[in-house]
Sequence to fold (265 residues):
Amino acid sequence: MKDFTVACYRELLETLLDTGYTFFTTEQYAHAMQKDNHLPADKVVVLRHDVDLKPENSLTTATLEHTLGINATYYFRIVKESNRPDIINRIAALGHEIGYHYEDLTLANGDISKAYLSFQSNLEYFRRFYPVSTICMHGSPRSPYDSKDIWRTYDYHALGIIAEPYFDIDFAHCFYLTDTGRCWDGYRVSVRDKIPTYQDQWSAAGLSFHSTHDIIRAAKSGKLPKKLMITTHPQRWTDNNRLWWKEMISQNLKNIVKRIMILLR
Fold:
């Protein structure tokens, strides 16, 4: 069975449900942890999607999740490649959380003050669709700027934001899985979508998975940790054979470029 198909994604979700995991949005998880640092479930998945490109793919995954009784978080960028108001509205109507996938420091060419003003404006834009209370940095791998650096000067909590996963999720107690690089061990070629402090520890413990099928087998065998955050980029997931091959070839080329960029830094 091919990886990174919608059918494969369904199998992953159904396996996690069958093995006792309860799904949370980032917002739900943050509220629960802030309330009493306790979750009403023993096995937890915080499910997050970064809508970098092809927002129609996100509508497909959002609809699938809705049929399975799962709510997830969808982080949209402000740029036209992601920002489709019709799709944002439809995903919100399915009961999913909408968040802001910010890259304002890159868009402001490194100007912190300008980036903060841009962030405020873009946050208010997305709050037209949903009462946004969580945000997540877009990696912008080709940019020299890390948009998380805005928060060295400013405080997003002052804007009613309760969580930014890279700052507010305790990864000492929450295992992180992301399909960056179109695989699940792509942290090796990721510029920013990784958790450096814990990545080596997880790998040493055998918690490194290449394919979705590896994760499914780990869930069935009880190898997966009880608390995890899963991040997907729905642009990668399709049952269309032509688009599947196009995405695979494109991502493999991008991974080569990322490796070179990492070596040059």
